[in-house]
Amino acid sequence: MNVLAIGCHPDDLEIGCGGTLALYAKNCHDVFMCHVANGDKGHAVIMPDELGKIRTAEAESSGATLGAKKVFNINVPDLFVDSHIEEQVNDVVEVIMTVRPDIIITHSPDDYMRDHVETSKLVFNASFSSSIPHYDTKAKPYPKIAPLYYMDTLAGVGFLPEEYTDITDTLEIKLKALEKHETQLKWMRDHDGIDFLDFVRTVSKFRGLQSGVKYAEGFRLYKGWPRIITKRLLP
Ligand SMILES: [Zn+2]
């Protein structure tokens, strides 16, 4: 399968579905990652222009750790992700047309901040528009409207998973990938007083407790025609 995960900021996919992406890669599926925002405002000292470049490099290195074939960057400045801006929709449509995914993973539409919520809507819209033959982009339309999975919210708040993946074997890869986002581990420590590796391990352990394994990630399938499936696509 071609697996496409589209997150908001450069580290969001590692947090929400990094263990699952590593599992897909281990099982010889082709994994593609995409971040919509460039992460340029996630720091108190490093200025946005410089930070955007550093975080793009961190995301590439993290993607390689998880086994992704490519990491796409839509390059929207932090806090300006907007599902009604045509250019942003077009860019996501082009990524979908290029990857031609069998499954798409993104944020839950009720996650904790606007960029995440808008990314969720953007992916929902774009993954329909990408099937339209006369949608005007450089890439070739992709007739399939892929099943769409929502990953866990930050800290799992308000999110009741319907499917779980056992990431016991890939938790360390997930955390190693997250460690590549050095600026963010420091930012979370300085700005929010949070040990982010411990934070992410804790949520994985909690989802594992719910599903009878050591570590897990939780997902919900978007249920609307024609995205309903009869077999499990998650690993
Ligand atoms: Zn984020």
Task: Characterise this structure.
The protein has 235 residues and is α/β, with parallel strands linked by helices. Helices cover 43% and strands 17% of the residues. The protein has seven helices and seven strands. The chain has helices spanning 12-26, 48-66, 86-99, 114-129, 171-179, 182-192, 196-211; strands at 2-7, 30-37, 70-76, 103-106, 148-151, 163-166, 216-221. A seven-stranded mixed beta sheet has the order 3-2-1-4-5-7-6, sandwiched between helices. α4 links the parallel β4 and β5. α1 crosses α5, α2 runs antiparallel to α5 (171-179) and α3 (86-99) packs across α4. The chain is globular and about 50 Å long. The termini are close together. The model has no long low-confidence stretch (mean pLDDT 96). The structure holds zinc ion. The site of zinc ion has 4 residues, from loops.
